[in-house]
Every structure is written in structure tokens, then in C-alpha cells.
Design a protein that fits this description.
It is built from ten helices and 14 strands. The protein has a domain of 193 residues: 3-Layer(aba) Sandwich (Rossmann fold), CATH 3.40.50.720. The chain is 41% helix and 18% strand. With 301 residues, it is of the alpha/beta class.
Length: 301
């Protein structure tokens, strides 16, 4: 197949490019700037706001896998521009080019849109997809980790150096390894029964993981099995977010918006993909250990 992929220069998108190339597919990947050559990948320079570029990206493709989006922004407008307007632009381009299959990567946060600007923008992006005449499937991943991830790196570092993992108050979450998620996104392209469906994939752990269990898994991954998962009260996280905003401005990763999302007690998936379409291959313990090993190889841990 020929696949049009957005977000290919990012963490999850990189895994999508790798898995698609391993399967022999040809890929056109949108990029803002120069990229190193990758097998089976043609880089198309532009952004989600460049409509002529999107036409070039999508023309003649068998499917679109739309990964690109903002996970952090200083304002709601920033989330809307990246997650809602960007999605609408891709849908319009696909329809104009006669490409019917559209795989949209949303977020589990869309299930609770009133909690955060990020979740609201992801829910709004889904609403745009719902209205499309294309053969769409929406995927709502939970927390994603894996080789190349920088979002969880600090948790691994703190566990390795201090023997603790600071986490939000009591709750449960699901996890998925990025390569496993990439397999699903590509498997969905030919899955006719997945059209107009919303799926929430994870590693197959029925009730997900408590925050304490998640902290222990990271401890084992970095070679400190006695690592303590330390619950941090919501007010303390809000203070930390305010301090980071003062220190880093718009580059702050811990924001009040993220704190509202993190402190929700239930981020366990509910609607997994059917087993005849896709099954997870990487449990969190195995995947987090492999991630820690990769961090060490990079000199990050």
C-alpha cells in the first residue's frame, strides 16, 4: 500500500513509519523540516496548514494515518489549531483526493473533555471526524511509552537516582507500547469491520494498573525493585505546574491543564479492538524494561 502519514517525525509517528516499512508499504510522511532518509519513506515538507502540500501528500494513497497533534500547548487556541483545525484540513484533503480510508489518532482524554483543554480539543477533533463521509476509525490510546519517548524519561531518571516515582493521587491507568500501537494503526487500514468505530487499545491488562503498580514497574525497569511510588496531592502538582510555568514559560511540560488530566482517577481503556483485528504483544513490564535499556544506550539514564 501507499500510506500518507502525519506526525512521522515524532515519537509515535516514527514507530508507524518503521512498522509500515517493515511490512513493505510505501509511505509519504509530512515534515516541517529536513529529515534523515528512512526506508520506504518519502518526506513531504510542509504543515497541516499548507493545503497544496496536503494534496501532494495524499494524492494516490490508499489510506491516511493521522498521528500529528499537540499534547501540550500554552492556550486552548494552540490545542484547537493543532488538533481540531489540523484534523479538519487532513479530512478535507483526503476527501478532495478521493482517499476514503482515514485512521485518526485521538486520545483517551477525549472521554473526559471537561477536564482539560487537551481533552476538549481531542473530543472536538473526533466530532469533526464523525461528520466526515470518509471510512474513518478513531483510536484513543492511553499512556504511550517506548523507545524514543521523552515524556516519561524524567520518571525513569527519578526512579533510578532517588528510588521514588512521583505520581498523581490514587487512580488506575492503562498503558500501551508505541510499537504495539503502530501495528494496530496499520492493521486497521484493511479492517473493514473497523470503519466508523472507536477503539481504546492497551497491553491487554484487564483493569489496567494502579499508580503504585505503575511506579513499581518503572522501578524494576531501572534496576531498583524497591522503588516507592509516591502519591503527590493535586494541590502540590498545581503548585509545581505554576512554578514550572514561571521558570520555563510556554516550554513548560507540567501545566495546570496537564495536572487536571493527570489527577483523574480512571484512565483505564473500555473498548478494546476486536482480537481478530489486533492483539497486543508487549506487556508493560517487558516494554518498560526495554525502554529503560534504550535510555541507557542513549546515555539518558
Amino acid at each position: 500500500m501507499i500510506l500518507a502519514v502525519t506526525g512521522g517525525s515524532g515519537f509515535l509517528g516514527g514507530h508507524v513509519l518503521r512498522v509500515a516499512a517493515e511490512r513493505g508499504h510505501q509511505i509519504r510522511a509530512l515534515t516541517r523540516g529536513p529529515q534523515l532518509p528512512r526506508p520506504n519513506v518519502e518526506w513531504v515538507k510542509g504543515t497541516l496548514g499548507h493545503h497544496r502540500v496536503l494534496a501532494e501528500l495524499i494524492a494516490g494513497c490508499d489510506a491516511v494515518i493521522h498521528v500529528a497533534g499537540a499534547v501540550n500547548a500554552p492556550t486552548l487556541a494552540g490545542f484547537v489549531d493543532a488538533n481540531v483545525t489540523g484534523t479538519a484540513s487532513m479530512l478535507t484533503a483526503a476527501e478532495a483526493q478521493g482517499v476514503k480510508r482515514f485512521i485518526h489518532v485521538s486520545s483517551l482524554s477525549a472521554r473526559e473533555p471537561d477536564l482539560s483543554d487537551y481533552g476538549w480539543s481531542k473530543a472536538a477533533s473526533e466530532a469533526v471526524v464523525f461528520q466526515s463521509p470518509l471510512d474513518w476509525t478513531i483510536v484513543r490510546p492511553p499512556a504511550i511509552y517506548g523507545v524514543g519517548d521523552r515524556e516519561m524519561l524524567e520518571l525513569f531518571r527519578i526512579a533510578r537516582t532517588r528510588g521514588i516515582v512521583p505520581l498523581p493521587p490514587r487512580g488506575r491507568l492503562s498503558l500501551i507500547e508505541a510499537g504495539d500501537l503502530a501495528r494496530l494503526l496499520i492493521d486497521l487500514v484493511d479492517a473493514g469491520e473497523a470503519v466508523e468505530q472507536i477503539y481504546e487499545p492497551d497491553d491487554g491488562t484487564t483493569e489496567g494498573y494502579s499508580h503504585r503498580e505503575f511506579g513499581k514497574l518503572i522501578g524494576h525497569a531501572v534496576g531498583r525493585p524497591r522503588t516507592l511510588a509516591l502519591p503527590v496531592p493535586g494541590f502540590a502538582l498545581r503548585l509545581a505546574a505554576a512554578a514550572e510555568r514561571v521558570r520555563l514559560g510556554d516550554k513548560a511540560k507540567l501545566t495546570p491543564d496537564r495536572v487536571r488530566y493527570f489527577c483523574h482517577p480512571d484512565w483505564v481503556v473500555q473498548k478494546r479492538p476486536p482480537a481478530d483485528i489486533w492483539q497486543p504483544a508487549v506487556k508493560a513490564g517487558q516494554g518498560l524494561t526495554a525502554t529503560a535499556d534504550w535510555y541507557r544506550q542513549q546515555g539518558w539514564l
